Amino acid sequence: MLRIVLGSDLAPERAADPALAHLLSQGRGSLAFLLGDAACRYRLLTTGIHWDRVLLAFDGERAVGFAAFKHARRGPFALRWRPFVREFGLVAGGVRFAGFCLSEWREWRYPFLLYGLRVDKPARNQGVGAALVQACCAHAAAQGFARIELEVPLDNPRARRLYLHNGFALRRKRLVPFPPVRGMWRGLP
Ligand SMILES: CC(C)(COP(=O)(O)OP(=O)(O)OC[C@H]1O[C@@H](n2cnc3c(N)ncnc32)[C@H](O)[C@@H]1OP(=O)(O)O)[C@@H](O)C(=O)NCCC(=O)NCCS
Which of 19, 41, 68, 121 could form a disulfide with 116 if both were Cys (CB 3.0 to 4.6 A apart)? Predict the structure, then answer.
């Protein structure tokens, strides 16, 4: 049976399970030019996870997916420069960290942003993604937000379809197509 839990409600020893951080670091693939591959993202991002910005889907004891979100200028990842310098050296690490900060700050204009969504491959097409999207909408509504926004990559029709089927509408195409994403939004009761 599927269970969706806010990361900060997990027992501390459960949240410390590296498998959860691992799952989370599989997201942000579109920023691979800054953050490297999944193993590198794990080293860069998981030293400071804000678990109060992550909903986790569990099938029994196994985490099978997550939805991460941002509001009040806080997303799932703390902005820490040290791991970038350790990974890439002072100059390249500094440049990559600055690029990551810009990408994070750009999203602060959204009052409540669905920042990332991912379901483990074997668990896909069983409704986990939809359940996470709905749980994220319910969480935003419970926090008093009137709408939820997200950005979907132009080359991800599968995710776009999932959002459309879960009450989201497309925003107008942007004049400047960078980053290559399309805005979507949904009003909340
Ligand atoms: C996009 C993603 C999160 C979808 O997750 P998912 O768990 O497969 O999503 P769902 O199962 O809820 O929906 C997927 C499809 O399965 C179908 N489905 C849902 N439950 C089903 C069931 N019990 N039996 C058969 N099919 C089912 C749905 O109809 C849906 O198809 P549709 O969107 O054409 O209607 C997942 O593919 C993923 O992690 N992709 C990589 C990361 C990514 O792209 N993230 C989005 C970034 S914006």
Answer: 68
Give the per-residue pLDDT at 84: 97
- The predicted pLDDT at position 14 comes to 87
Find the 120 Cα to ligand 1 centroid distance in Å: 10
The answer to whether the CB of 24 is under 6 A from ligand 1 is: no
For residue 170, the model assigns a pLDDT of: 97
* Predicted confidence band of residue 27 (pLDDT cuts 50, 70, 90): confident
Mean of pLDDT values over 21-43: 90
Q: Is ligand 1 within 6 A of the CB of residue 125?
A: yes
Q: Which CATH superfamily is domain 2-187 in?
A: Gcn5-related N-acetyltransferase (GNAT) (3.40.630.30)
- CB-based burial of residue 38 (10 Å sphere; 0-12 exposed, 13-18 middle, 19+ buried)? middle
Upper half-sphere CA count for residue 29 (Cβ side, 13 Å): 10
Centroid of chain to Cα 117: 5
Paired with 186 in beta bridges are 148
In the chain, where the domains are located: 2-187
Ligand 1 neighbourhood includes 130 CB (under 6 angstroms): yes
- Over residues 121-130, the pLDDT tens digits come to 999 999 999 9
Q: Is the Cβ atom of 117 under 6 angstroms away from ligand 1?
A: yes
